[in-house]
Amino acid sequence: MSRAGSSARGVAVLGSTGSIGRSTLAVLRRQREHFRVVALTAGRNAEAFDAQVAEWRPAYAGLAHRANGSPYPTGAEVLLQAATHPDVDVVVNAVVGAAGLDATLAALRAGKRVALANKETLVMAGDLVAQAACAGGGELVPVDSEHSAVLQCVSGRDGGLARLILTCSGGPFREWPAERVREATVEEALRHPTWRMGNKITVDSATLANKALELIEAHHLFGLSYDALDVVVHPQSIVHAFVEFCDGSVIAQLGFPSMELPILYALTHPARLPDAGLRRFDPVAAGALTFEPVRTDVFRALGAGLAAGRAGGISPAVFNAANEVAVAAFLEGRVPFGRIPEIIERVLDDHRPAPAAALAVVREADRWARERAAVYVRSS
Ligand code: NDP
Question: pTM for the complete prediction?
């Protein structure tokens, strides 16, 4: 529903200077009749943020990190201010990592739609996120292309969902021998074959930790057990997900790799809007579509994350935190690529599984896992 006095729905973009944030603004630039930017937040890129604020003139603008001479309010609180602003109908959460959790919870409690790119927070606290939506009347709509694909396949159909097969490009090391993968450089890991994304998710895509995060995300979003969730490698990234129904029928969603379509759909779901800025599909240009099994022995982060998902409770939060620390250390040149899954596995081995009964428990698990992962980083 739109707010009184305007037919355009109010949007907050959290993480507006990032890859998803910029794609969101590109979509909104073409949809000014239907959406208006009410709030923007970013991390520390004050220069890019200044230009966005000058263009969009939002009612609220804040930076999470203090920048010299910046006129904006700063601190973690700005995410909450933007997410709960009274004129905001839809919160696009495009923050990277655990930093996005509180804003997701606050927006859902305030009855907003959350277009969620920030998968880490659903992984950390999926049940608590669902409770917040229930309590406040908010609604969670995925931005991730695979989950958007599933939503597009199931919307308007009445139940019968049996299994999901999420596709995975395989990342830059899909065909590399295991020994070579272990020694991959930062530059090599950041050269994703089909998607241009922020650094953290690009490394997650190279280790396949990203697919584990997505399986856990799918479990929470679509209520399926892990036995009903599969992954297949699809190097062309044209089919985003397959949805199998109880009679064995399978529906898939296709498109050239671009986040702008899933972002637009997260804003308009279950309706659709035309967008002349999006590349139309062309099966001939898409070419041959191929599928392969995942090399789980080489990309062990996937198995580790899946085991954490199956364990439930605080284990996914531990997986997420260990992964965040290991990826940051890799990007800073402090650990080799091959150490990322090892650090994750060790931290998961060390942790004591427990129910994620309250936010404080999840936060403590997150803190503990970061500290533990840092020990393994230092000993690398
Ligand atoms: P980027 O690193 O490109 O952008 C992250 C954004 O979050 C930036 O605006 C950054 O601000 C801001 N930010 C970083 N740290 C904080 C913090 N502590 N507090 C507040 N804001 C912060 O990431 P992506 O856009 O690639 O990814 C964002 C999320 O979307 C991730 O969870 C990712 O997994 C998910 N996703 C991304 C996809 C993609 O195509 N990129 C696809 C599907 C999901 P600044 O730059 O100003 O420091």
Answer: 0.97
